[in-house]
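Final report, Chapter 2: Outcomes

The project's central promise was a pipeline that accepts a single protein chain and returns its three-dimensional structure in a standardized token representation, suitable for archiving and comparison. That pipeline is now operational. To close this chapter, we reproduce one record exactly as it appears in the project archive, with the input sequence first and the structure output second.
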Amino acid sequence: MFSHDRIWAAIDALAERHRLSPSGLARRAGLDPTSFNKSKRQGVDGRQRWPSTESIAKVLDATGASIDEFFTLSDPVRDAALPQGAFPPQPGSIPLLGFAQAGAGGFFDDGGFPAGQGWDVVEFPASPDRKAGVYALEVQGDSMLPLYRDGDVLIVEPGAQVRRGDRVVVKTREGEVMAKVLHRQSPRSIELVSLNPEHPNRNFDMDEVDWIARIIWASQ
């Protein structure tokens, strides 16, 4: 029997299979990028929203998947392992991307986790408490001197709780990616202090921020 959760799980699994976020899958199918967002799966009145048959048909056409494959993906007892080449990577290695690339679309899902293609891989020791989705960003340029130099690698944990004084990476909805120190965050705004005194501090309304992730380690 098909349920609301299983149909959406099949769409998420199909996106993973093609190394896409749900929004990336929607774009590939020619749909509104927000069509498959988590927020679109339930109405403001709490009622469940289902993807249309037309949307599913377009997704199958865009990915080359058959309806039988789609039904298999919705099976709760299917192998839960990620398809080969999808993220998170194998233990001991994590995805690596340059800061310049990080500003482009398609490399992250809606939560700031790695998605899509074009990532390199860097070795990073596995540990029992390492969360899935940890990835690395390579510093490019001198905007983060004196703390981080060109070529340094920052290990980032998306979804981690951030506090005042934490070093963070922030991506704006306009595609700007920056490493700063979190000075203050409220439900409506965020204040960031630059690592390089020659670069200005930055303030944003929260609706201007795509995601924020904590820097947990840096190679120097």
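Archive annotation: The mean pLDDT is 81.
This record, like all others produced under the grant, will remain available to the consortium after the project formally closes.
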